[in-house]
Structures are given as C-alpha cells and as structure tokens.
Amino acid sequence: MSEQSVADAGAVTTEDERAGLARAFEQTPPLFALLSRLRTRRVGLGYRCETGEAETLSWSSGRTVKQPRGPLAYASPHHPRALSELEEALVLWAACGPNGITSADIPVHGNLSSMMSWAGRTIPAADGNACLDLFVINDAGTHIYRPGEARSAPIEIRGSEDYGKVLAWYRSGLQRISDRRPDIGWHAAPEETRAVDMMSPSQYNVNRPGSTWLIPVSDVGLDWVNLLFSCYEWWGTFLAKPEDFSPAGCEIWVKPGFLETGWPIPAFDEMVACQHAAQAGCLIENVRLACEALGLGAWRLGAYSTDLVLGGFPEIATGLGFRYLTRDAARNPMAVMTSDGLPGVKEALVVPSERFPTAADAVRHVKELRYRDGGPLSVHGNYAREHGGPLKADVMEEILEHPRTHISAEWVQTAVTETVQYVVDTYGCAPAFTNPVHAHVSIQVHHVDPGFYRRFHVPGPDGEPDALSPQILDHFPAWHPGEDDPCAGGTQA
Fold first, then answer.
1. Alpha-carbon distance 393 to 399, whole Å?
2. Is residue 86 part of a domain?
3. 190: Cα within 13 Å, side-chain hemisphere
4. 491 within 8 A of 454, measured Cβ to Cβ
5. Integer Cα distance of 407 and 111 in angstroms
C-alpha cells in the first residue's frame, strides 16, 4: 500500500472510529499494569465446556461430538459476538502490523549483508524478512493479513493524526481467500478411529463462530537459504552430513580461511525452525497484551497437528488448503511432511518445486531479494534511503557502497548452491528435516463470557472474579455502546 493510499484510507474513519483508536492508544492501561493481570481466558460468548451434551459442528467439519461432563460443565447462554472491524484491526496491527523503517543498527562487519527488508513490524524478524504471514479466520471467512512493506518514516504512528493508519492497513491488507471458515473442529481424526484427536483434547472451542482465529504461517525455506549465505559468508561453518559430519556437497571450500566447522543438517534445520517459533511467539504475546488492553479474551492454541490445519490430511479436513509434495519415504528419514505453500497466496521456498525447480533458482532468488533495484541493500532506488531514515544520508551511502555489505565472492553463492543441491539429491528436497511451512502455534480471540468465571472462580475484593478485569467488565459499554452487555447484572451463582 502506498503512503498516499494509507493517508486516504485513514482519512475516511468516522468520529466513532477515531474515538476508538484514541481510546486504544491513549486510555488503555500501561504495559506493567497489563502484565500484572495477563491471563488466558478460554471461554467466550457461545462457547461450551465439558457439558456432556452432543453437539454437531455445522460451522466446521459437520461432525457430532461430545465432551464428557466434568466439574466445569458450562454452556454459554449468549449468542456468539464477532469482533468489530475496529477491534480486529487493532488486534491484527498489534500482532504484526507496520510500524516504520527498521533501525538498521547492524554493522557491515556483523552480517548486515543478510538483511532482506527495511520494513519494520511490531514483531522482530531474522534479517528483517517478512517470511511470516498471518492467516485470519472469522465469521466472514479465511483471510491473510498482508499490509505490505511500504513504510513512510522510521516511526509510522507518531500521534493521533496517524491512528487511522491502523484501519487503513486492515482495510487494504486483509485479503479474503475463502468465504468460509476452514473445516477444522474438535476431535478431527480419521473416520476409522475413535480415540485419536488431531486437534488435541484441550481445543474443544477451536474455530467457533464469533471467534477470530489467528494462525502465523512462516516460510521457513526462505530463511533457510538466507541463513546458509550467512554461514558461508560470515561464520565459516558448513552444512555437514549427519552420519559422519563430512561436508554436504561443498567439500572444495572446506579449508582454512573459508569453511572450517561442520553443522549437521538436521541441527541446522532445527535452528532455522526455532527462529520462526520465536517470531510467532512474539506475535502471540503481542495479541495477548492487546486483548488484555481492550478487554477481549485471548487463548493460545498449540499441541495440535500443524499439517492437519495447513491441509496435509485432505481426507480428514482441507484446512487452509496448502499443497503438499510427495516425498520418497526411503529418502525422508524423519518422515517430514513437506508443503510448498498455498498457490497464489503463500508460496514457500522449496527445492524442487514449481516455483524453484533447481537449487540455483532458489539461491539466486534469495540473493536478488537483497540487491534488486529497490531492495534493502541496493544502491539503486534504496527504499530506506529515499524515505528519510533511519540512518543519515552520508552514513547510508557509505554502507551501501561498502564491500562487506555485499556478498564478497562468487564462491559463496556457488558453495550455497552446491549444498542445497546435495540436500535435494540425498533427501529429495530442501529443506529436508523440517517442513518449509510452519504454523505450530496460533491464538484465538473472542468476547469473554463472564458467566463462566462468575460461576466457578473465587470473587475478588470487588465481588467480581479476578479473571474479569476492569477492561472486560467495561468492554461492551466502551466498544459496543447501545448493544446488550453480557457483563451487566453483576455476579451470579
């Protein structure tokens, strides 16, 4: 989205929207006050909890399920209430929205050459990349939140005149990819089984009507190749065969002053995967804090089959519809399921695939992302230089012209390509020991049902259970004036 379109979209907000944005930025509790009460609140309006009653998930897979009755038996008497556009826009911006141009405080002798973008977001990213996208599931369908990499300044939101950008990014950046929720529900499993639950026993209310389910999805393959460049250019390490720690296809470059220490391929794959787990974790925590501030419930989900959610088991559920490759079992020692993404929406770097048929294609693509015209390290049309920061003009010029800002020698690209080709030849694809697409954790946001907590939790000093924060108790009058308030009426037995 261009700067002008951001400004134009931000200018159309109503007085109610402006007031809501100001309330979020100026009147919510400070960080440490939020942390003092931060809790997971899993029960939302329209949810159920171990009632022992059968229920058909008509909004999802169409299955009839029953969670055995237990001590927290509860069926919400309220209809589901979806988040408003403004509430969802604020939560998504907190999750991973644009917030300016990165600080670029990496020295040229400290691997600045790995940078892939100057576009800052509310979450950190290895090398400034945008490998992680946020899939958004709500009552209107399935979407991807992708407000783009355009940034107008080191800080995008400096005051009230910029608050409207949050809605502008939401309206232009939320792209619908389906008009329905994915067919994911509790107790998803093969038809012939009864005890298996691929969504885990604790996810009974996953994907409920009224909820907004946020799923961070990462292109681990892109980062995998980019970090290989860093290893070979800066660290002096090379990918090694796990069986004997000998070089994986780059033998000619293993010598003093070039590549000296081996890194077993499975361990390298795990390290790259952890980078994305950390990034998704930051997103999850941002959402939790935003919901605490707004008086919404936020429930982190995990311990389920990622491949089920993505679409790796279409006979059970189509999920998000990601495409999976067929791998040779004899060359897949970890039995890893490998996706190359959702065509036309979120395509991951995998070799071989339709987009990257050869190792050379993938390696060339990653290098060009850095140095193409308009790229983060390009001397031509450099975005950060042309948009006022963050570095002074003379410093930026010196950095862009510095030899250590660029891949120093042709052998580096050659060695990376040879290593990728070895992994493909040996294991059938690269990356091989981790799925190039990661979506291991997610978070669901909803309006809290106060009745559950009033029934089962100990009252606090004010007579309300501590789980019902002032923001939750005041949420509907503040954010939905004129609507029925499920918190009205005080405590109940």
1. 10
2. yes
3. 4
4. yes
5. 10
Q: Among 213, 189, 208, 201, which residue's Cα sits nearest to residue 50?
A: 201
115 CB burial (10 A radius; 0-12, 13-18, 19+):
buried
Domain CATH number, residue 336: 3.40.109.10
Quote the CA–CA distance of 344 and 338 in Å, as a whole number.
Answer: 18
Instruction: Please state whether 10 falls in left (phi above 0), alpha (psi between -120 and 50) or beta.
Output: alpha
Beta bridge partners of 98: 121
pLDDT band for position 238 (cuts 50, 70, 90): very high
What's the pTM? 0.95
Distance CA 153, CA 155 (A): 5
Report CA dihedral (406, 408, 409, 412) to the nearest 10 degrees: -80
Q: Are 284 and 300 in contact (CB under 8 A)?
A: yes
In a domain, 471, yes or no: no
**What is the span of the domain harbouring residue 162?**
3-448
For 135, the token pair is 């899939």
On whether the CB atoms of residues 249 and 150 are closer than 8 A, the answer is no
Q: E strands within 156-314?
A: 174-178, 212-219, 237-240, 261-264, 297-301
Q: Give dist(CA 431, CA 225) in Å, integer.
A: 9
Total residues belonging to the chain: 493
Any domain includes 203: yes
Tell me which H or E stretch contains 400. Answer: helix 393-401
* Domain count for the chain: 1
Preceding omega of 431 cis (within 30 degrees of 0):
yes
Residue 469 lies in a domain: no
CA–CA distance, 454 with 460 (Å, rounded to integer): 10
Do 399 and 112 touch, CB atoms closer than 8 A? Answer: yes
pLDDT digits (tens, 9 = 90+) for 135-185: 999 999 999 999 998 888 899 999 999 999 999 999 999 999 999 999 999
48: closest CA among 81, 73, 16?
Answer: 73
d(CA 254, CA 237): 9
DSSP alpha helix (H) spans, 201-298: 220-230, 265-294
Q: Is the pLDDT confidence value at 374 over 90? A: no
**pLDDT digit string, tens, across residues 107-138:** 999 988 888 888 999 999 888 888 999 999 99
**CA angle, 267 then 273 then 277, to 5°:** 135
Give 82's DSSP letter. Answer: P
Instruction: Residue 256: count other Cβ atoms within 10 Å of its Cβ.
Output: 7
Name the average pLDDT for the chain.
Answer: 92
